[in-house]
Amino acid sequence: MGVLGVIVLVDKAVYFDADWYLQAYSDVAKAGVDPYQHYLTHGQFEGRQPGPNRAIAWAHHLWRGLSELTLPLLEALVAGETTPPHERVLALTELMVWYGAEQRWVDVQRLASGHEALLTRARRIDVLSLLWFEAELALGSGEAPTRLAELKQHFPTWPCAYLAEANLGSRGQVLICEFCFKLLGSILWLDRCV
User: Fold this and answer.
1) Contact criterion met (CB below 8 Å) for 78 and 95
2) DSSP-based three-state secondary structure for 67
């Protein structure tokens, strides 16, 4: 299992599609290297996908106004026991960020608390942990201090952890959402471009 913030290695037989990988990444095909080895040593760290990922396309449409159509599809990916982990993790990430941007904190909390094991596999666990904290804070949950402690423990130098602490100190007035959502949106967008 990987450390926080790094994609967890996947089982080749179940989750890696070598033919798709070579077709999607022509530079790997031209180099003549083993696609699975490339993914393990380079591709996953470059943000390349191990196989087709429906969550990418559906998230694209989610953010362009088609939430009524795409929310159920993304929710189904997260809930699907047979859905490959890389699709579940990305669907979870996109849903939590979208619900947070819409200030639908009950949905953020539901997803985070219902999928803790999946949450730890996300590349941007820092972003998702902050959203979970914001949800707990906005809902007046007694879990907000616990989430803050986890944020500061895992990300002691991350400025948003200290902004979150300021939020907790302001007794529930959410001060940083607009700033953090712009920052989080930029981080997630850059992750897709890598």
Assistant:
1) yes
2) helix
**Tens-binned pLDDT, residue by residue, of the chain (194 aa):** 233 333 334 444 347 888 999 999 999 999 999 999 998 899 988 888 888 889 988 999 999 999 999 999 999 999 988 888 888 888 998 999 899 889 899 999 999 888 887 777 776 777 788 888 888 888 888 888 888 888 888 888 877 777 778 777 765 454 445 555 555 555 554 444 43
How far apart are the C-alpha atoms of 113 and 26, rounded to whole Å?
A: 39
* Euclidean distance between CA atoms 161 and 136, whole angstroms: 14
Q: Are 136 and 109 in contact (CB under 8 A)?
A: yes
Q: Is 137 exposed, middle or buried (0-12, 13-18, 19+ CB in 10 A)?
A: buried
Residue extents of the structural domains in the chain: 1-50, 53-193
Q: What is the rounded distance in angstroms from the CA atom of residue 167 to the CA atom of residue 41?
A: 40
Asked if 10 contacts 17 with a C-beta cutoff of 8 angstroms, the reply is: no
Measure Cα distances from 186 to 25, 64, 97, 183 in Å: 24, 16, 12, 5
